[in-house]
Amino acid sequence: MAYNKLQTMRDNINAIRLALRIDVEHRYAENTLELEILRRYAGFGGLKCILNDANELADAAKWSKSDIELFAPTIELRRLIHDYSKNDKEFTAYMDSLKASVLTAFYTPQPVIDALADSLKSGGVEIRRFLEPSAGQGAFIDSFLRNGLYPSAEAMAFEKDLLTGKILSALHPSITTEISGFEKIDPDFEGYFDVAASNIPFGDFAVADPKYATSKEIAYRQSTKAIHNYFFLKALDSVREGGIVAFITSQGVMNAASPFVRMELMRRADLVGALRLPNNTFSDNAGTDTGSDLILLQKHTGKKALSADEEFFIQSIVDRDTKVPNNKYFAAFPQNVICTEAKVGTDQFGKPAVIYKHDGGVEGIAHDLRNALGETLKLRLNLELYNNKGITPPTPEPPAPETVKPRTENRVEKPKRVTETHLMQQYKEMKKKHPDAILLFRVGDFYEMMGVDAVKASEILGITLTRRRNGNAGSIELAGFPHHALDTYLPKLVRAGQRVAICEQLEDPKLRNKEEIKPTEIITPPPVVEPKPTPTPPPEPSKEIGTDGGPDYNDNPDPRLFTYNLFGELEPIEKPKRQPRQPKVQKEKPKPTPKIEISDATAKKFRPLSEKELEFYGSLNWEDNPPINGFYETMMSIAHRQMAEMEAERQAAEAAKQGIITENGTIIEKTEGNFIPQPRVAKAATSPPVERDMSPRSFSEDIQYFHHNGSMVVDKGQIGFLSEVRKNGATFTPLALKPEQEKRAILYVTLSETYQQLYHYEAETHEENADMREHLNQYYDEFVGKYGNLNEKRNVKFILLDANGRDALALERGENGQFVKADIFDHPVAFAVDEVTSVDTPMEALSASLNKYGVVNLEYMGGLVDMEEDKLVESLTGHIYYNPLVSNYEIADRFIAGNVVQKAEEVKAWIDREEERIKDFPGFDGIEPFIDLSKESLKALEEATPRRITFDELDFNFGERWIPTGIYSAYMSNLYATDVKIVYSPSMDEYSCESRHKNMKIWEEYCVRGQYRTYDGLHLLKHALHNTVPDIKKSIGKDDNGNDIKVPDAEAIQLANTKIDEIRNGFSEWLEAQSPEFKERLVDLYNRKFNCFVRPKYDGSHQTFPDLNMKLLGDRYGINSIYQSQKDCVWMLNQNGGGICDFEVGCGKTLIMCIAAHEMKRLGLAHKPMIIGLKANVAEIAMTYKTAYPNARILFADAKSFSAENRVAFFNNIRNNDYDCVIMSHDQFGKIPQSPEIQLEILQAELDTVEENLEVVRQQGKDVSRGMLKGLIKRKENLSAKLATIQYEMEQHKDQMVDFKQMGIDHIFVDESHQFKNLMFNTRHDRVAGLGNPEGSQRALNLLYAIRTIQERTGKDLGATFLSGTTISNSLTELYLLFKYLRPKALERQDIRCFDAWAAIFAKKTTDYEFNVTNSIVAKERFRYFIKVPELAAFYNEITDYRTAEDVGVDRPKKHEIFHNIPPTPQQEEFIQKLMEFAKTGDATILGRAPLSETEEKAKMLIATDYARKMALDMRMIDPAYGDNPNNKASHCARVIAEYYQRYNTQRGSQFVFSDLGTYKPGEWNFYSEVKRKLIEDYGIPPHEIRFIQECKTDRARQAVIKAMNDGDVRVLFGSTSMLGTGVNAQKRCVAIHHADAPWRPSDLDQRNGRGERAGNEIAKIYAENNVDVHIYAVEKSLDSYKFNLLQCKATFISQLKRGALGARTIDEGAMDEKSGMNYSEYMAILSGNTDLLDKAKLEKRIAALESERKSFNKGRGDAEFRLQTITHDIANNEAAIERLKADWERYDKVVQRDKDGNPLNNLKIDTCNLSDEKNMGVHLQGLAQRTDTHGQYQRIGEVYGFPISIISERTLVDGREGVQNRFVVEGNYKYKYNNGFIAMSDTHAACMNFVNALERIPGIIAQHEERTAKLKADVPILESIVAKQWGKEDELKQLKSDLAALDRKIAAELAPKHDEKDGEEVKPDTQQPGKVVEANPSPQSQSTDDKKSMVAEPIGNCEKSYIPMTTISKYASNEIHNVGRRL
Fold this sequence. Notes:
Layout: H1 5-24, H2 32-39, H3 71-84, H4 88-101, H5 110-122, E1 129-132, H6 139-144, E2 154-158, H7 162-171, E3 176-178, E4 193-199, H8 210-213, H9 218-223, H10 227-238, E5 239-250, H11 252-255, H12 260-268, E6 269-277, H13 283-286, E7 292-299, H14 308-314, E8 316-318, E9 325-327, H15 328-332, E10 341-346, E11 352-357, H16 361-380, H17 383-386, H18 422-433, E12 438-443, E13 446-450, H19 452-461, E14 466-469, E15 475-482, H20 486-495, E16 500-503, E17 562-564, E18 570-572, H21 600-605, H22 611-618, H23 630-657, E19 660-663, E20 666-669, E21 697-698, E22 712-715, E23 718-726, E24 729-734, H24 739-765, H25 770-787, H26 793-799, H27 805-809, E25 812-815, E26 818-821, H28 842-853, H29 858-865, H30 869-875, E27 880-883, E28 888-891, H31 892-895, E29 898-899, H32 900-917, H33 928-944, H34 965-976, E30 981-985, E31 990-994, H35 1000-1005, E32 1008-1009, E33 1014-1015, H36 1017-1026, E34 1033-1038, E35 1044-1048, H37 1050-1072, H38 1076-1089, E36 1093-1094, H39 1110-1117, H40 1124-1136, E37 1139-1143, H41 1149-1162, E38 1169-1173, H42 1178-1188, ...
Parallel strand pairs: 1-2, 1-4, 2-3, 4-5, 12-16, 37-43, 37-46, 38-40, 38-41, 39-40, 41-43, 42-45, 47-52, 48-50, 48-51, 49-50, 51-52
Antiparallel strand pairs: 5-7, 6-7, 8-9, 10-11, 12-13, 13-15, 14-15, 16-20, 17-18, 19-20, 21-24, 22-23, 23-24, 25-26, 27-28, 29-36, 30-31, 32-33, 34-35, 44-45, 45-53, 47-61, 54-55, 56-57, 57-58, 58-59, 59-60
């Protein structure tokens, strides 16, 4: 009959209903109908639907169609169980138990079991004791105990499921039923049973058996991890010698790859047989098709060997073709497979398997099984052994010293046991004291009565009388009732006139150290069987106990004996006092077992001891005063017993006065008269309640890791809070609570502390603690049952009083509107349990080691791949290297990385040191192999060292801090022709200069005289070193007070600047003139400091990310795999301990961040990582993390977390919990208090730097600007104020501050890290534009504090990971701030301690001259050029992973840039002239505005630039009075937008329009509204389809517009970069992006384009060839073209820098920035036709191009020269080697003897062998190879043809043992080997010929050397021609520099305040026609690649064609086409 789910469900419900009713009625199944109903119970193995939610009708929507018919029965089942449950706790326990059984409850068909039982019976097996360890409803019990089979058999059954256990008990009242796991079986039953038979559970479920888990045998330890293996071993322990174990189990037992458990089974038992059952065995009964085996074992512990069958049984095999696993036993005995059909398929897990079928159904299977079992039992069952007539098992322990009677027959007897169980002994001792009372004995959840008491009670109470097994003493009558029913049954006994004694079970008998029960010790240990919520001391007798009207037994704080008085009240009795000398029963240290024990009967025969005897013998004890012999031990026992009896009598006498009898902790009340129940209230007659001490006191318990201020704890039975928590103590403040509240609090504290201990234990040990988890479940269930869910409102407020409250609340999570248990209740969540156990290749082993440990663990790897360590290392050559600095192997990614030069030096030093140490050591030290390994590693480091930068490639700045000051001194002494001393102070970053003998060069030639001060050569030298210019003043009159009016003296400043430039530029020329040796030393120094970094290609492909949940990621985000780029980046971050993840938008930074954080935590690289992100993104980051790692403990800070009232609690939560990750926003991170110590340290360092700079400024006197002085003073005051504030806060809140340092965060992931680029720094370059604000922001400063805290803790750089697609958003100066955050130590190693020191090495300052309002020339400085860029890029890339979307393979559209060159309107032409005039004169009235103020004068060029930008956008931006023009930018833009609107109208394509100027402002004219007006009026576009992002005032409105864009309802969206450039995912229909103006930074342009150029753009992908058109609108003769090209060039060199692919060593950033506007010269060159200014711009760019060309030429020549030197050296070495090889060959060839075939004859002579025949010599050689030890030295053993033969010994390590291997060499000019020096050990002839064969190889070696030499010689002429070449443009470059200097002088001279003079020459128009696009055909010189690499932004020519591709514009810029200001 096919399996019917619905019918099975109904049968199960009926059975459960009946079982629950029977249980309530305290009876068993009484008739055939009830028995039939119960037997139909089939378990829920095929009914997984009960796992689904079924609480209400709405849950039906979540059910699958196939299971929906079971929805109603499931609800019925839940309601049924709920109705019969006493409370929610019990209901939850029932349901959890049922759900757990779903995986294992597949009941076996009855015919199959009958076949097994009948076969055993037929085979002669008689069963007296039967064990069923996994009984279910008792199918095996039914079969084995059915009538006539084994009628008198005693049976014990175990069933873990609560409901199934009740059904089992009801069906089989005559057997012993244990509703618990098999692991709970009493140890007394070891070797007790005859047969154990069952269908056991299967799976990788761990079993909590400490004895097995800690066993020395690996099989036992492994069995606790897989329940099926455990059942086999445990069952073998439980059956007697010869007993049979017959289990049906999964095929996995026999097919498993690991043989350990099967080996242990065969070691301890004989294999009777194994039968493979077909897959359809359980189809009808359980609805599942699964493979299973029936395995029969016979216990035989004394067996000596294995049979062939058992050898097969141990071995599992895998079919090569099908990959199907099998067991060799079934391959050898196919008849043992019960089936009619077999085919290869897959099992339920999708793995290859053989599927067996049987056409006969269950009956057919049973028939064939019966036949097969009959044959198997007949052949292999040892009945003699079973009947105890076989082999006698070894005695487990030595026999006791007593007379042993000789055995009369060879019969195995069960080891002698205690005749009664410990429980019965305990019960009987109690009963002896009170023979006339009915004793209610508490056992677990029941009160039991035994013997006569049971008979009486069963008659009075009407309860069932049964029997209980009592060890070997037979059985005893038993009756009982649940503990909660005491109120019902106790009055009945009292009314019947019975005296009643009530006794708790005093302790678990299984944990007792002695059988003897001492009266005074009975109540001491708490019972293990029923853990209590908290170990509080016993309540005082007089204490008032608040109750709810009924007795409460579960919260009794100190379990002890108790009774009811006549009024029905429970009265606990005070703990009896102990005798002072009474020994303790339990002691931590082990004590000797007493040899003599005195029984009760024996003790009564002794006379009472006297007082002296009691005092003397009572003082003896096993701890500190042991008895000296047996007599003293006997007397000690008697004394202790009599003292205990005397104490008990004394207590009884006292109790008798109150009408109470107390004996041995038992309380017996006189119950004469009628029983009158009374309310449970305190009697007035009782003693008054004792006042509790409510004052604060010291906490009496040990401080745990989870204790901190505000923790709720229990101390001496009182609830309270901790404060002033320290390592060694805390203050406890009691909390006044009502009794019921106190009970709840005690239970909560127990639950909370159990959780903390469980998580901490599993996180630390990575081992599961099943017992503690069971306790946690119990406490939680009890709490929820009594008080409701933790997160219910009535509990939350109370729980949050505890500082750990939020952790406790996290023990529940919400699902479908209900609170459910967190995962930790079911399984460990602190670690992953999956682990690799074997691999195929060494590389896979390496990957596994890196994945698990993060390092190379050779021991672990060897275990995985089963390979010796030396072979493993050899196999991984090139992948791992031995690093002697850490005494371990490292992977190449880690070893050959970072500063390889420094690492190589340290390795070389180690090698030299060790070789020196063992130089004179005669023997083998053991370090030699490691020295050899280190030499190989050193060679790898040297080979990986970057190509050496030559002198000609370097560009030196005068004042670079790394150059020794002695070089500067030598240069200046040469320049000044006198001795000059220069000293550098690193702490102050200051140079000081002095000369004792000043001369005319210092006084006159290099001197500038100002009106107030003379600046001699030494002053200018100091400025030259610092790259600054003196601020020379002059007077232009007097003010009203008669003081001089001081203004800058421009002429003097310019002169000083000229002389300073002469000093600085002359330095490079002086270096050129130095000797080659000097240059080499300088270059070596540079290469060691800067050209030493190697970034390996990080390969993270080996990572498996064990805890990562790809299924959830796929379901929620569609992420089905991890990109290789993401794996590589995670690996880099783990290897480096942080770094920079520079991935473009959409490349997976968020997932990288989450995975890296979790992996750092898992590998122990970080203990508590933190992620901070933008407010708009942080929730998504948290969701991604939780999706990727659903079991991770993350703390996400929502808005409420940082409210004023919650913030402190949240900080405490971080500090006090070991979260996997803490996630919060940037703003929230800024609110975290930083460590005051770190703040003080950093701010003090900054203040010291400011004060040092201030002192330097003051020393320089009036040669510095007043502004610089004022600025430094202001910074000093600000920093001093901050320091004072921090110090005050530290003093005021010394113990209250919870700062970042205390939180334990040790790694920070900073998403969108460019938000923190505004970091403070100190600089003397106050006049340099584009450096940003040196003050920085508080946000950035907080991050610096946090990172420094981590770096201080670890002692290393990094400690943080920056993630951003725009790490360098605008300028390379931002790199310094990145390095300041992440690499302070690395910077310090390069002698960089401040920004000025960094800029002195990598930046060049330029000075441009501009007019001010007084028509004076002013200098404008900026760091425009960056030098040594490749080394700067290497320093950056070492810690950075940079990937573009193309690198990652993100499917997104490509951008197609279209440039619109728009002619200016007449109004714009006119205004351009005004702008040029304003730029010259500074007269703002020309522009129609008020004159410039003093402040505005300083920003004149910024104002001019701003006007030019507005003019280019629309003239109405300057003045709304200007009218519209059909040819302006707005009209042009509207026309293109309308064109795209119509083109993609069918697809509803959308467009973005960007402009940072002219944004939407209601009621004012603006560019947005103007374009919208044109689109509506001129092109008929509906107004509602055009929106402005500025209209969205709320986030909700913003999201609505974004959705409308994606839906196609909004077609055109206007916005600025800041509002529309980020956080807008409206790309779905984007077809075009329009840039009406140019932003300032390349990153802004990327953000704009990213709105459409991103994944998810469906319309562009399908209808626009996966392209998004990007339109750039530029007005001719405006700044538009220049700005766009500048952005393009900046973006290019930033990208090349990140990739490390720069060709040029110098970069020009251009001359315009957001803060100060454009360079004056280029501004005028663009807006005017001034020839001089335009020529100056051209000259600068041409010079830069030529310098780049020269550097490139020198680089190429340097490379060629280096290569030529290397080849020449190699040729010389090869030729010398060839000569020596030829000499050896000639010598050998002259003497060698050959046979007729030309083969050499052997001429071997061995010094230590007198025999000359090959056989004996071969044997002798083989003996030498095996026994010789030369300790690493070559030792002569003989010769061949005159060539000496030597042997050398090498140390090896095999299987952990050191050995020696020998190699043989033939010595000539070289040492020659054959077969790598090893001789043949199996062939004596081959062994002897080894040496001749080695010499015969010489010609081949010569040929190899000659071939290589010929190839090298062919390269020499080419390299020599390259090296001989000279760069032919040196004169041209010098002339251009001279022309530029002359032009600068001319411009300075011609620029005058007269407005009527013309500046420069008139530019004549070109002869080409307007409107044509110039297709440039420049000269080859101008087309050189080096010109392109100069990266200088160029203005774009005037062109009237509407569309010009952006690539053409870039090409024009690169080839220097200057057509601005004139027509083409």
